[in-house]
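Narrative of accomplishments. A recurring question from our advisory board has been how the design workflow behaves on a single, concrete structure rather than in aggregate. To address it, we present the structure tokens for one chain from the evaluation set, followed by the sequence designed for it. No filtering or post-editing was applied between the two.
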């Protein structure tokens, strides 16, 4: 039986091992020069003046909001289709979370944001979902006109861009370096900004409120990243272009193979918005002859992992519905799309044969007898990929 194709796979190489050993032998295991290297690389990547490493992507969001002075009595508008960390961060600083519904591209709809800005808002927190950046060209000006700060949840979008400008450079950017992200340190996060005051405040907060040892200037926290963690991330940032190229190439093959299936909507694409495919997420709509659960069960039988990310709008849980800090703005589009999304493997390391298996498994689920699978030569002729013959789709 063929090996199961997993949705994600943590891969570290010899350079990561070398740098981790370098840190271990240095005796400097906590925040130190390796963290500084990671920060410099992130600032260069995003084109921002400052990058501050912290202990997780959630902490990046919390620290960004705190550094901007957002707290009790303030309102933050965010996307309803996101991981719980986005909402948790808003609630952790004591602010009230409101929501602007998403569009067909699964990110914050600027028209819905405009409606949500009908009363004072301290920050707008768009989410770059699955590696696809939100429409910052429209969101940024709306926030500016409302006098609201922009905090980007770029946890899944390292390297993504909008009209040539990197995600994380449109306001205060917040990245996650969790184990399954395109760049990982195991756990970790980074905040990017052009505002020297915001960067200085986050550096103060992450070190227990001390600028100098035992000279406390603020009520702080331990938000620090270790040099051991940074040593894993530094080499990956250096090869991010290759990582992104692999994900995008895999996504192109999946898109070519899955195009035209009834009721299936493929990942969004718009001019100027570069998708880095943290996840390859399709939609199984009501026009599909298959229920999403049926497709998932078929893929599981064929040894292809899939996942629903995310199964509900983020507020649609008792712990949030009953929370005084959550304003339940109606977001029918997000609620409907959460019932359609399905993520397929797109990670680096997938072979052409793996990608062919994914395409075969999906297409066979729709019509096992009407899809004739043909082998095509892969690059260099060293392997093959099963692809769907367009002539057989009748």
């Amino acid at each position: 039986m063929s090996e199961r194709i997993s949705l994600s796979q943590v891969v570290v190489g010899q350079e990561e091992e070398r740098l981790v050993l370098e840190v271990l032998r240095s005796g400097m295991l906590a925040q130190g020069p390796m963290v500084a290297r990671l920060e410099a690389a992130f600032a260069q990547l995003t084109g921002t003046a400052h990058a501050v490493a912290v202990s997780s992507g959630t902490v990046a969001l919390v620290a960004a909001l705190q550094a901007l002075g957002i707290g009790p009595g303030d309102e933050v508008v965010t996307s309803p289709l996101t991981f719980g960390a986005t909402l948790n961060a808003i609630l952790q600083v004591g602010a009230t979370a409101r929501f602007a519904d998403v569009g067909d591209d699964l990110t914050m709809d600027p028209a819905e944001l405009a409606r949500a800005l009908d009363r004072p808002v301290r920050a707008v927190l768009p989410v770059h979902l699955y590696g696809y950046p939100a429409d910052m060209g429209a969101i940024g000006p709306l926030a500016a006109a409302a006098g609201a700060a922009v905090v980007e949840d770029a946890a899944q979008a390292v390297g993504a861009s909008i009209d040539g400008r990197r995600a994380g450079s449109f306001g205060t950017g917040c990245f996650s370096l969790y184990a399954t992200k395109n760049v990982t340190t195991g756990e970790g996060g980074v905040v990017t900004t052009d505002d020297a005051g915001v960067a200085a405040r986050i550096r103060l907060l992450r070190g227990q409120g001390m600028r100098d040892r035992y000279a406390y200037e603020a009520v702080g926290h331990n938000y620090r990243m270790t040099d051991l963690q940074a040593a894993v991330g530094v080499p990956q940032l250096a090869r991010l272009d290759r990582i992104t190229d692999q994900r995008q190439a895999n996504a192109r093959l999946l898109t070519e193979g899955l195009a035209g299936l009834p009721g299936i909507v493929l990942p969004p694409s718009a001019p100027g918005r570069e998708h880095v495919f943290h996840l390859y997420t399709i939609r199984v709509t009501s026009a599909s002859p298959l229920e999403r659960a049926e497709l998932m069960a078929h893929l599981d039988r064929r040894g292809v992992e899939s996942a629903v990310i995310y199964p509900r709008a983020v507020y649609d849980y008792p712990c949030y519905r009953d929370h005084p800090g959550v304003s339940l703005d109606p977001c029918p589009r997000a609620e409907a799309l959460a019932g359609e999304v399905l993520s397929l493997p797109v990670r680096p390391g997938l072979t052409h044969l793996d990608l062919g298996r994914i395409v075969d498994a999906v297409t066979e689920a729709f019509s096992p007898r009407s899809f004739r699978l043909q082998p095509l030569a892969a690059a260099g002729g060293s392997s093959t990929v099963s692809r769907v013959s367009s002539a057989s789709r009748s």
